[in-house]
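Subject: sequence -> structure tokens, single chain

Hey, anyone have a minute? Need the predicted structure for the following. Not urgent.
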Amino acid sequence: MFLVEGNKIIKELPNSGYTISDLYSTAPELLDLDETSIQKILPAELRKISFLQNPKDSVAVCAIPAETKVLETNIQIVLDGIQDPGNLGTIIRLADWFGIEQIICSQDTVDLYNPKVIQATMGSFLRVNVVYLDIEDYLKKYQHPILGTDMDGDNIYKTDFPEKFSIIFGNEGNGIRPSTESLVNQMITIPRFGKHQSTESLNVSMSAGIILGEIFSKH
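Reply:
Had a minute. Here:
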């Protein structure tokens, strides 16, 4: 089971593939979910069960799906060892914004159902298929180009992106691990235009936003 917090996201749950087990709210009338029984609670009780410092209204307990199927998509994101919940949540949100339907995660990537990840997605986890598997085995069988992101790579602004491909973002501190990198067809990078060298690198979710924006400006 996992928690979904906030009326805005909870209202989207009935139209998703997730099942609500229990629902607690300080103001059930604001949820307007006829088919779901809502238990009214006090704000003090909500603070006890919420993962947020300042919870607003409602908490839903949902079932984690038994399995997630891998989809056939044109462009997909592959995450190799992302550890920060905020980064994963933001990347899922970016994928949703750009219409990317699937993210493949290494088995050591932070859990999708971590409360901080769910909150950071702002509901986008409902619309993006997130799958955890052995990414090396998966990529060995993958039939389309595989792009990797690194400080040393081809300039994204001079890169022609194929119609179908996977793009890999690596761990916040170590990047893409060597065994995964060996499967990459092309490395790409965001060139530095600033003259000062004090900024060593970009946050991985920030990099994802810039790179995805460039990819879709050309599609």
